[in-house]
Amino acid sequence: MVAHAAVTGNRQDRMFYTGLAVVAAAIVFAGFARTYYLRDLFGRPPLRPLLHLHGFLFTSWLAFLLLQTTLVAAKRTDIHRRLGVAGGVLATLMIVVGIITAIHAARRGVTPPGGPPPLVFLVIPLGDILMFSILVAAGFYYRSQSEIHKRLMLVATIAILAPAIARLPFAFILANGPLAFFGLTDLILLACGFYDAISRRRLHPAYLWSGLALVASQPLRLAVGGTEAWLAFARWLTH
User: Fold this and answer.
1) What is the pLDDT of residues 10-52, one digit of tens each?
2) DSSP class of residue 22?
3) Dist. CA 221–CA 195, nearest whole Å
4) Of 139, 132, 138, whose CA–CA distance to 159 is shortest?
5) How confident is the model over 218-239, as a mean pLDDT?
6) Distance between CA atoms of 26 and 204, rounded to whole angstroms?
7) How far apart are CA 23 and CA 184, in angstroms?
8) Distance in angstroms (rounded) separating the CA atoms of residues 236 and 239
């Protein structure tokens, strides 16, 4: 009975993580459909090469996550492990290009609808990249401990969903800006934590602490973004 329950739990986990990778990809596609994936249909002007590179790398991460979770679901963890190096290289490129893109956008005065002024808003994407960097680095450090590794990679991916959520064409997101897109990000995090707690009968520490760190970073960013020290730093970055 115990062995059967363990097998059933593992199967449910594989389905859950694969399904979440699909959901994350769907959110990113919906959020960036008008400005990236289907921009020609919406009459958008051509994108700068930097934005193309940024979009390609971050889309590749979602495709990579889906591939990796599918390999685990198919019990091909041998291939999953061999592809880990490629994931590390991809994550590093994402971090570098993500930082450059965020600074470039602030320099051009870009901010999402309902968002704060560009220099204030800059703290949000840089914070996303920082959280992603920390969580992915921790995930690779614990790559030999699958229960920790997969949860850290999951939360790392959730950490970079906010930009896509911010661009979903819903009025309440446009009206409430960071409060709305951070709130929806946290709902996804909460749903994952709920599954984790129900399936294991307790919340895994890796999920608890990484989730708390991500949630705590959100109001911290909003508080820091309005300070004169941050604005001075942001002006230095963009000039």
Assistant:
1) 778 888 888 899 999 999 999 999 889 998 888 888 888 999 9
2) H
3) 28
4) 132
5) 93
6) 26
7) 13
8) 5
Distances (CA, A) of 123 to 11, 61, 91, 165: 39, 22, 20, 17
The pLDDT, as a whole number, for residue 113 is 63
| CA 110/CA 162 separation, integer angstroms | 16
Distance, in Å, from the CA atom of 94 to the CA atom of 87, rounded to the nearest integer, reads 10
Per-residue model confidence (pLDDT) at position 228: 95
Each domain of the chain, given as residue ranges in start order, spans: 2-238
H/E run at residue 176? helix 171-176
Query: Tokens at residue 207, please?
Result: 């999920």
Residue 2, pLDDT > 60, answer no
Task: Tell me if 122 sits within 8 A of 141, measured CB to CB.
Answer: no
Say which residues have a Cβ less than 8 Å from residue 203's Cβ, sequence separation at least 6.
193, 196, 197
What is the chain's mean pLDDT, rounded?
88
Helix, strand, or coil (residue 143) = coil
DSSP labels for 66-123? HHHHHHHHTT-HHHHHHTHHHHHHHHHHHHHHHHHHHHHHHHTT---TT---HHHHTH
Q: What is the dihedral of CA 172, 17, 78, 159, to 10 degrees?
A: 30
